[in-house]
Amino acid sequence: MGLRVAPQKTEAIFFHDGRRGKPPVAHVRVDDTPVQLGTSMKYLGLRLDGRWSYRDHVDRLVPKLDGMAAALTRLLPNLGGPGDRVRKLYANTVNSVALYGAPAWADEAVATRHIRDAFRRVQRRVAIRVVRGYRTVSHIAASVLAGLPPMELVARAHKRMYEQIKELRGLGVLVTKGTQGAVRLQARRQLAEEWREYLTSIPPTASGTRVVGAVGPVLEEWMDRPRGIKMSFHLTRVLSGHGCFGEYLCKIGKESTKHCHHCEEEDTAQHTLEHCPAWADERRVLTNTIGEDLSLPTVVRQMVGSEDNWKAVSSFCSNIMRQEEAERERERRGRRGRHALTPESRRERRSYLGALARKRSSPRRKTKVGSNPAPRRKTEGKPGPTIVKGDAPLETPDILRDRGRMGGEGYRRVKIGGSRRRIPP
Ligand SMILES: [Zn+2]
């Protein structure tokens, strides 16, 4: 045959079905060089093992996919960041790496729980990035909201496409781009069907069933929704139930009670959407557009029905969630004390103090410690106070009487370091 091999680079593997236990001990020699018999080997980018299980392949692939998912976490923040199309594009880059050689291992992935679970862990992180969800959102809910079918089902769809095109070529049919498109469309429809079947098999006690019950019946429309409409993170919160709701906050230990802050009911995402009297005005605007029925399956059906409906629901969710979050933040601050700061004022204070520190540490401003320069102003003939600059310890406060500007008889303006205070008489 003329085939030349490098004996020292040669690997060997024993393929077996595992029914008769471990394979026998064997010794392979190529040109008097002993070749080690391994349990797996890399061939054309796939890691093969003796039982064709592809577990080893997936175990080595998952850390790589995890790294990609972690990179997406930094690239796709919940607030701001790229739009839905770009997010889906990023998600598909992870899929394209994961699905390398899918026709070879698709059936094993569908049949093996270990492989399915490994892929789901990665897909959950990616799907959460796509929909701007909390990291506590389950794989089922996140993947349904993101429109990303389970990886093993996508792998099987790839296998079907590959086999159909191979069969057509075997029959002598010229496979054009149009033919490939038709095969792809058919595979996609079958994939949606299989995904829906998988979703109906999920037990009702599993997390994420609320989303599945709502989106499942309109899965294809949800996946193929127009490009202009997007998932905002407030919309994701209302749909997934993971957000500023008593039930969720109580579950994660952030609040002690599930009760709504506006009424006596249990505070859930559905309560906020459908019942809570606090949002009656906002709800009226919504029902004028999408109708009176605010059960989640109907709302989702209306959303995929028209762009205006989608925007009305999204705007309602953003509106009420912003108000609710602001109110809870105020309550939290109230509990922490009157002087607790909002994140914004904390940021402002940090930047102010940073600027002050830079200003004070600049060499031009520094003065000798212990020096006693002349005061800036003198008041009523009294000796002027000491103004301390730079990082020198405070010696004497700069007390200035400034009745006209500081509002009120007898008020003193005290200068301590860089800040000024009003001291009542
Ligand atoms: Zn309420």
Automatic annotation (TrEMBL):
Bias-annotated ranges (Basic and acidic residues): 322-332, 398-412
Domain of life: Eukaryota
Region described as Disordered: spans on this chain: 322-425
Keyword list, A-Z: Nucleotidyltransferase, RNA-directed DNA polymerase, Transferase
GO MF annotation, one: RNA-directed DNA polymerase activity
Biased composition (Basic residues): 357-368, 413-425
Protein name (Swiss-Prot/TrEMBL): Reverse transcriptase
Organism of derivation: Lasius niger
Lineage per the UniProt record: Eukaryota, Metazoa, Ecdysozoa, Arthropoda, Hexapoda
